[in-house]
TrEMBL record, chain B:
Location, primary (coarse class): membrane
Protein name: NADH-quinone oxidoreductase subunit M
Keyword annotations from UniProtKB, A to Z: Membrane, Transmembrane, Transmembrane helix
Entry's Gene Ontology molecular function annotations: NADH dehydrogenase (ubiquinone) activity; NADH dehydrogenase activity; ubiquinone binding
Membrane topology of the entry: Multi-pass membrane protein
UniProt entry tagged with the keyword Cell inner membrane: no
Length: 723, 581
């Protein structure tokens, strides 16, 4: 197989051109709004929303063109290095089922979030800047989804990080916001380092970043004597690779590191709760369809590149994350914190699904989660907005509008919000007939089959993964019920009239905010995803993105195949798992209801994390302090120490040696003055002496001259006579 | 035109300097205009050269240079010792074209940035233009002596520009800069003389031997001369020694038994003399790069230098170090390059991490950026040491990209220093509120520098790192852990930049009370836009369309890696074999 053949430019089709337009439209919105937004009527929000709507419409068109019908691929050479061991760096657009599914979700939710923001961000000084950033953010996310190679994917991946930095720190005058966006970017970069190293590892051996080419090369390879053999040629020169499983596992885990950062997996999930410092619609976008979904999408795109061992690690990390997120959500009092931790927990599910071979189920959960989590966050936005209004009217601006302890009884004041929240929360908790039930059930079923397959040699430890999944079901139902109870039941606990928080007598909030929320909440119903709302296997999403449609060899092909077969054979367990998870959810709800139904308003208002365990989960297992003392502080210490090395060692040596140079030059100068000059002076002095002697002889007296010549004559005579 | 374009590039600023010299002091605006004109002409010529340079033409070697201009300069007979010959030999290839373009662009930016200089304008611009001439000469010279001349000559204007127009500790910084660089150039001088005694000019020797027909030396004749030389049958009187760098790159031009011949067998401190020569040259240029641990002149020089001089220093002068490594050290001593690749790559990685950590500890914004320069120039060493196509292209790309981005960074620091006469990070908070456009450019510059995709820095870092990472398998050069450590530099870069942003530009607006009276924090003015906007656009253009530059660099870089790898392995074997005997 010749690699350069695999990387040939592919001509664009109308579909790929449309996809390019979809990609560039939000970027256009960014540029127009950033530079000229201030001068536009209504500061350009209509432009942003209009462009988003067009992008969404085009995405739907692309969806109809591509879904289950065809794939489109356009590719061009980006740049090339003239070397026989380097292939061209290409850039292109790849449209397949996975791409168009993500495309529709991203543009849809992004449009709704922008619509919502018209109400939510009304009157903000940075109104146009806000919409500009949203455009950049959408552009980056669409880039991740559309591109056909890992290098470009990484570039858009970083741009997502950058635009989230801008959005989280949108209110840059808030110190907490600028601390949070720095943290988000840096923690993401930790993951990116792994991702980059993973990319390098694949590039080193396969000499390309192109996904299709990589997949072809990997399907051409084979496991032989527990090493992976691949044969191909590049510029006519043969490349024979014999890769050890350890290396491939490490490379795969490198890619996974990127997902750990972006999709907030253990132990890098610490940035996500802080990220809620951004405006609430932004949280909605980050938590639902974009950014955190990118990590799961990456796993899906690179699914062929993970070895069984790598997948096992992924499954375990996912399970840990699901549990840690759910536990941390138990005792939160900030309305957004609960939702943030629930996102972490749900992302854990998705990653666990990827690790256990539940590729399609995991992506299905990504889809359903996108809708109900967006609904929840936007609802939270409505409530926060309303609380702000109430607190402002009552001159209580210092009070925390996001603290659920200050709320209560909102069910009656804000019925629309309540019912849409209820619907979305039910989906999150996995109540039957909701979308969340379907997708969660799917992941649990496959992970059960995975545990069965893996424990074929009687190692039952693998069952811990699905068991964790079940435990999280209870916890999720519990914390969502508690959360709902705090906000919507009982009586209003803040010290002002609850009617103050309504927008007007007729409307609980601005209509422009209500529409997206209701729409998203309705889409949390299972019926939209599967005609049989109790069974995930008939879901159109699962059918469209199942691994069967990928038809390729994977590094973990045998394992995934075995899991799929086991899953297909599990008829009875399927039904039992469905019933069991529904019962677990019910149990969680009932426990929470019993616990909170007893509490008085006063108790709710003053509730604090009481026990050690509660404090532990409330503080997110002190992971932040762990990283601070374990990494940040040592880094600062090293930094200052190294700077001292610069000042006190290198410069000291330099100054010290230059001082010695001066000393030596002083000595040389002294030597020069005394010895060298001394010699010269000595010669002068001697000749002076002789001169003096000579001068004394010439005293001008004839008799002296006569005596000298007589004396000389005698000396000459003596010389002649003696020698 | 083709014959004179390189010489015009070099001497246009000198001509402008002469005009400035003749103008009376009081014609300040005319002096500025002449300086700007000189720099502009140089930039236009550089851009013209960039477009006319053919990136696909033959690889490195005698014939790979374009727009060559070769004239006898100093030449006389030494009797039985042969002929002494120094040539005015200039030419451009894929390695230098990017540096020429960079010098042209940054030269103009620097003049615009110098507009606010008040003290002794005539002297300032005179020295500034002299500096431009010598830097451009450095990048275009193909004769080692000529190169050295320009290289040394850079010191003089730089010394005075820092020492007279600098900040409070300017004398210390200037003398430190001067001594550091002078020590480096002494090392280079020693090796240059050694090389001169060892290398012949085959063409001129052929002429001396009367082997030329019609005065043209074709490759057959040159080959014949080289064979005669290696058989040791050319009389001493007929040998024409040379400083020509292309001649030095061909091992066949070394006189048998001479000091630096691969088989000379001379050993100094247990190392073959060629390794010593490599190390001396390496240290000489590493000081200029600068690489840890010979970097401490840089923060001081930057902190004391006025803004435009900082811009020039970071954007162009540092590149002379990296350029010298690529042009001179590696091609002439490929055996040393192969033998010391871990040392060079290791120092590169050390610079990346050490510089980044030091930057993290800084409270002075300008010093932070100075240390970030140390960190980024480490990538150049790493890419070179990998000797992979990606690594070398990346190293050259990094030099160009760092030139653009560091110019932007130092300009940005200059903006706040102009207004507040202070640039301590902790003395400001929430500047974004007062200076939104300024903050936008700070964010652009910082993110470009920390390697955000879309900016040129990303392409450079990516190529260097991917080259370094694959080197053990492709060229067998660096251990892999080195590159893995280097990748953490990306994290540290993000850390120091974002932390600075957080502390200085975001949060509630506040400035140190003592500064409040003096500081007039107005947003960017037109002149500052004029400098920052083109640089930001350039960083973006070269980040999105890297082929614009890589198409020019690629063939030369490929020739470089092939030459160094092929000759390096061969000569390394020979050098080591002499030691065993």
């Amino acid at each position: 197989m010749e690699l350069t053949e695999l990387l040939k430019p592919l001509a664009g089709t109308p579909q790929t051109t449309t996809a390019l337009v979809v990609l560039l439209l939000p970027l256009l919105a960014f540029f127009v709004l950033f530079f000229a937004g201030k001068r536009l009527p209504r500061r350009g929000d209509w432009l942003a929303i209009g462009i988003s709507t067009i992008a969404f419409a085009l995405s739907v068109y692309l969806f109809t063109q591509t879904w289950n019908t065809a794939t489109f691929h356009a590719r061009t050479t980006w740049f090339s290095l003239p070397s026989t061991v380097v292939s061209d760096f290409t850039a292109g657009i790849l449209l397949d089922n996975l791409t168009v599914l993500m495309l529709v979700i991203v543009t849809f939710i992004s449009t709704l979030v922008q619509l919502f923001s018209v109400g939510y961000m009304q009157g903000d000084t940075g109104y146009h800047r806000y919409f500009a950033y949203l455009g950049l953010f959408t552009f980056s996310m669409l880039g991740i989804v559309l591109v056909d190679n890992l290098l470009l994917l990484f570039m858009f991946w970083e741009l997502v990080g950058f635009s989230s930095y801008l959005l989280i720190g949108f209110w840059y005058h808030k110190p907490a916001a600028v601390a949070a966006n720095k943290k988000a970017f840096l923690v993401n970069r930790v993951g990116d380092i792994g991702l980059l190293l993973g990319l390098f590892a694949f590039y080193t051996y396969f000499r390309t970043f192109d996904l299709e080419a990589l997949r072809s090369l990997i399907s051409a390879g084979d496991w032989l004597n527990s090493s992976f053999i691949v044969n191909y040629s590049l510029h006519g020169e043969p490349w024979l690779l014999e890769l050890s499983p350890l290396l491939l596992t490490l490379a795969g885990l490198g890619l996974f590191m990127g997902c750990v950062g972006k999709s907030a997996q253990f132990p890098l999930q610490i940035w996500l709760p802080d990220a809620m410092q951004g405006p609430t619609p932004v949280s909605s976008l980050i938590h639902a369809a974009t950014m955190v979904a990118a990590g799961v999408y990456l796993l899906a795109r690179c699914y062929a590149f993970f070895t069984p061992d790598a997948l096992t690690v992924i499954a375990i990390v996912g399970a840990i994350t699901a549990l840690a997120g759910a536990l941390a959500a138990l005792r939160q009092y900030d309305i957004k914190a609960v939702l943030a931790f629930s996102t972490i927990s749900q992302l854990g599910y998705m990653v666990m699904g990827m690790g256990t071979g539940a590729y399609d189920a995991s992506l299905f959960h990504l889809t359903t989660h996108a809708f109900f989590k967006a609904a929840l966050f936007l609802n939270a936005g409505i409530i926060i907005h309303a609380m702000h209004r109430g607190l402002h009217h009552a001159h209580l601006d210092h009070m925390d509008a996001q603290d659920i302890r200050n709320m209560g009884g909102l069910r009656k004041t804000m019925p629309f919000t309540f019912y849409s929240y209820l619907l979305a929360a039910a989906a999150l908790a996995g109540i039957p007939l909701t979308s969340g039930f379907l997708s969660k059930d799917a992941i649990l079923s496959v992970s059960w089959a995975w545990a069965q397959t893996m424990s074929a040699n009687c190692n039952l430890l693998y069952f811990i993964v699905p068991a964790t999944g079940f435990a999280v079901v209870v916890l999720t139902a519990y914390y969502m019920t508690r959360h709902m109870w705090f906000m919507f039941f009982g009586s209003f606990r803040a010290p002002f009239d609850v009617q103050q928080i309504r927008h007007s007598l007729k409307l609980e909030t601005e209509r422009v905010m209500l529409v997206p929320v209701v729409l998203l909440a309705v889409l949390s119903l299972g019926i939209f995803f599967s005609l049989n709302p109790l069974s995930f296997s008939s879901s159109w999403v699962v059918e469209g993105i199942s691994l069967k449609n990928l038809s390729l060899n994977m590094l973990a092909g045998n394992l995934v195949q075995a899991v799929t077969m086991q899953d297909d054979a599990n008829h009875l367990p399927h039904i039992l798992i469905g019933i069991f998870s529904a019962l677990l959810a019910a149990a969680g709800i009932i426990v929470a209801l019993i616990q909170y139904n007893r509490k008085t308003s006063e108790q709710l208002l003053l509730e604090q994390p009481a026990t050690t365990f509660q404090r532990l989960t409330y503080n997110h297992f002190y992971l932040d302090s762990f990283f601070r003392t374990g990494f940040v502080k040592p880094a600062h210490w090293t930094a200052t120490t190294l700077y001292r090395v610069d000042k006190w060692v290198i410069d000291f040596i330099l100054n010290y040696s230059s001082k010695w140079l001066v000393v030596i030059s002083k000595i040389v100068g002294w030597f020069d003055r005394l010895v060298v000059d001394g010699l010269v002076l000595l010669v002068g002095a001697i000749s002076k002496l002789f001169g003096m002697l000579g001068r004394n002889l010439q005293n001008g007296k004839v008799q002296s001259y006569y005596a000298y010549s007589l004396f000389g004559f005698i000396l000459i005579m003596l010389y002649i006579m003696l020698f | 035109m083709n014959d004179f374009i390189l010489s015009s590039l070099i001497f246009t600023p000198l001509l402008a300097a002469l005009i400035v010299l003749l103008l009376p002091m009081r014609f300040q605006n005319t002096i500025k205009a002449v300086a700007l004109g000189g720099a502009l002409v140089q930039m236009v010529l550089a851009i013209l050269l960039y477009f006319r340079f053919d990136g696909t033409a033959a690889a490195n070697g005698q014939s790979g240079y374009q727009f060559v201009n070769k004239l006898d300069w100093i030449g006389f007979s030494l009797g039985s010792l042969g002929r002494f010959q120094i040539e005015y030999f200039v030419g451009v290839d894929g390695i230098s074209i990017s540096m020429v373009l960079l010098t042209g662009i940054v030269g103009v930016i620097g003049v615009i940035s110098s507009w606010t200089i008040k003290k002794n304008i005539k002297g300032y611009f005179l020295l500034y233009l002299l500096l431009l001439t010598s830097v451009m000469g450095c990048f275009l010279a193909l004769d080692f002596f000529l190169f050295y001349l320009f290289f040394e000559f850079m010191l003089l204007p730089m010394y005075f520009l820092i020492g007279i127009w600098g900040g409070p500790k300017r004398e210390y910084a200037a003398i430190k800069f001067f001594i550091y660089t002078l020590v480096g150039s002494l090392f280079i001088l020693i090796v240059m003389i050694g090389l001169y005694t060892s290398v012949i000019d085959p063409e001129a020797t052929a002429a001396q031997l009367g082997m030329l027909q019609d005065g043209v030396a074709n490759s057959d004749v040159i080959l014949q001369v080289q064979q005669l030389l290696q058989q040791n049958v050319i009389e001493g009187a007929n040998i024409v020694r040379t400083f020509s760098i292309p001649a030095m790159m061909d091992p066949a031009n070394f006189i048998p038994g001479s000091l630096l011949h691969v088989l000379s067998g001379t050993v100094l401190w247990d190392l073959p003399i060629r390794f010593i020569a490599f190390l001396l040259l390496f240290v000489g240029f590493a000081i200029k790069v600068p690489s840890v641990p010979v970097h401490t002149w840089l923060p001081d020089a930057h902190v004391e230098a006025p803004t435009p001089i900082s811009v020039l220093l970071a954007a162009i002068l540092l590149k002379v170090g990296g350029y010298g490594l690529i042009r001179i050290v590696y091609p002439i001593f490929p055996d040393g390059g192969a033998y010391f690749s871990v040392l060079v790559g290791g120092l590169g990685v050390l610079s990346i991490i050490y510089g980044a950590l030091c930057a993290l500890a800084m409270n002075d914004l300008k010093k932070l950026i100075a240390y970030s320069s140390v960190s980024h120039m480490g990538f150049v060493l790493l890419g070179l040491a990998s000797l992979t196509s990606e690594g070398v292209n990346g190293a050259i790309y990094m030099m160009f990209s760092h030139g653009i981005i560091s110019a932007m960074l130092f300009l940005v620091v200059g903006v706040i220093y102009d207004r507040a006469h202070d640039r301590m990070i902790l003395n400001f908070r929430g500047l974004a509120k007062r200076m939104p456009a300024y903050t936008t450019f700070v964010v652009i510059a910082f993110f470009a520098s920390l390697g955000l995709p879309g900016f040129s820095g990303f392409i450079a870092e990516l190529l260097v790192l991917v080259g370094g990472f694959s080197a053990p398998d492709i060229t067998g050069m660096l251990p892999r852990w080195l590159t893995i450590v280097a990748v953490f530099g990306l994290l540290l870069a993000a850390a120091y930049y974002l932390w600075a942003l957080q502390r200085m530009f975001f949060g509630k607006y506040w400035i140190f009370p003592e500064l409040r009276e003096k500081a007039k924090l107005s947003d960017l003015n037109a002149r500052e836009y004029l400098m920052l906007v083109p640089l930001a656009i350039l960083a973006l253009v070269f980040g999105i369309f890297p082929h614009l530059l890589l198409n020019k660099i690629g063939v030369a870089a490929q020739g470089f890696t092939e030459l160094v790898l092929r000759n390096g392995q061969e000569q390394l074997q020979m050098v080591l074999s002499t030691i065993v005997r």
